[in-house]
Amino acid sequence: MKKEGHSSRILLTTSIILVVFSIILWIVISQFFNVVDANVESSLENKFSLYLSAMIGLFLILSLFTVSRVIYHFTKPVDELTLVARKLASGDYKARASVSEFKDLGSLAVSINQIARNGQETQIVRSMEKERLKTLIESIGSSLLMLGRGGTVNLMNGVFAQTFHTSSSDAIGKSYKEIGLPLAAEQLIEQVFLSEQVHEQQIRMQQEYGPLDLTVYGAPVIGRHGNWLGIIVVFHDISKIIKLEEVRKDFVANVSHELRTPVTSIKGFAETLLDGALSDPDISRDFITIIEKESGRLHSLVTDLLELSGIEQHGFTLNISEVNAATTIQEATQLVSGKLAEKQMTIEIEEMSDLVMEADSGRLMQVLVNLLINAITYSKQGTTIRISGRKDDHSVLISIADEGIGIEKEKLQRVFERFYRADLARSRDSGGTGLGLAIVKHLLEAHHGSIWVESELGEGSVFFIKLPIHQPSHSIE
Ligand SMILES: Nc1ncnc2c1ncn2[C@@H]1O[C@H](COP(=O)(O)OP(=O)(O)OP(=O)(O)O)[C@@H](O)[C@H]1O
Ligand SMILES: [Mg+2]
Fold this sequence. Notes:
The chain is elongated, with a radius of gyration of 48 Å. The longest helix is centred in the N-terminal third of the chain and has 47 residues, at about 45-90. The protein contains 13 helices and twelve strands. It is α+β, with helices and mostly antiparallel strands. A hairpin with a 2-residue loop joins β3 and β4 (about 210-220). Adenosine-5'-triphosphate binds near residues 304, 402, 420 and 421.
């Protein structure tokens, strides 16, 4: 509107000047020919006067039109440049001016376009940086919170929103004390505000699925000119590290405990022998038998521990080949036949089709023997063990069912943990280390398989193992 107003003002002024000029011209010429004198009645002069008026009128219209065209031609690029400049000022850097043929206006348009291009480039760079920063903030994996000088939330990432059950729209603009942070974290933020120094602390939050351990790191954000902009708080989830630390501590405690029993026993009997019991051959024999048994226990404990740590090593590999699990089951039952006979137990193997699959035959045998020995150890005399196997398109499922002592429901998952014994007295008695099922589980996982157990206390247990027919990333020529 302003653009049009500007042109039309120039146009109007020019028109008025021209009109005034034409009227003056008309009056002057009329005077010259005396056409305005009413007393003169000359048809020739009247005609001439009319003709002259028409000519002047026509001249007036023509000059008005020409002048308006010239003015329009000159003011159009100026108005256009004004419009483009206004768009640039409002941040629309896509606007461009057409380059006019008038020299000065043309170079002004070129400069304005250059400013527009520079502005557009800066805008692109800034939006790219903004996008990059946003991606970085969202992908750091830790909770991030940024507070302004007054302690109000300026920014948070998705992990923060998820951990503290909030959302950007809910929390932004609120004080850090209103967004449900744990008290310890609020206190840390307060300390950072007061001291303008970095603070770090470990906190534990109780969540529905268990404790969540976090390290909270709060740091002041200082601007380029040394001005204080607020603070940044990062919450790093260290639950897994803490859990691993606890597992490690438990493991060391368990190993020490397991080693202490036989070592104490061996030491005690050896000391008694040295104190004089050696002179009695019967007592000596009994004590040395105990020492031999306890050292056997120590030996199997150390062997199992080495075995387990070997399986857990990064470099552990399986010797994969085509194996018929039905044959391996037969061989495993022969291996335990001695123990079976001792307890007058029997094994029934269900009719099974060929169970050809890719596996490490030695390790598969180790798994089956371990499960069979457990089935024999934790069963009464004269009972039966039943083995079945079937196959579908992708996997082989083997089950070993006994009629033994069974396992309590709440202990079913734990039997695969290292050193865990469901029936402490009986399994200690059996000389077991409590590592057998942990080794079995690791071996099956190395095969991308799994193990689980169903059991009824006093009735018996069924151990199921599931293995894929084809080992991923392995091909047999
Ligand atoms: N077939 C089973 N019936 C009942 N309980 C079982 C059976 N198999 C395992 N368990 C329970 O699970 C626990 C863990 O078994 P695991 O084989 O890991 O250890 P272990 O037999 O005690 O010792 P070892 O390391 O010598 O095998 C056993 O102590 C026992 O309480
Ligand atoms: Mg066992």
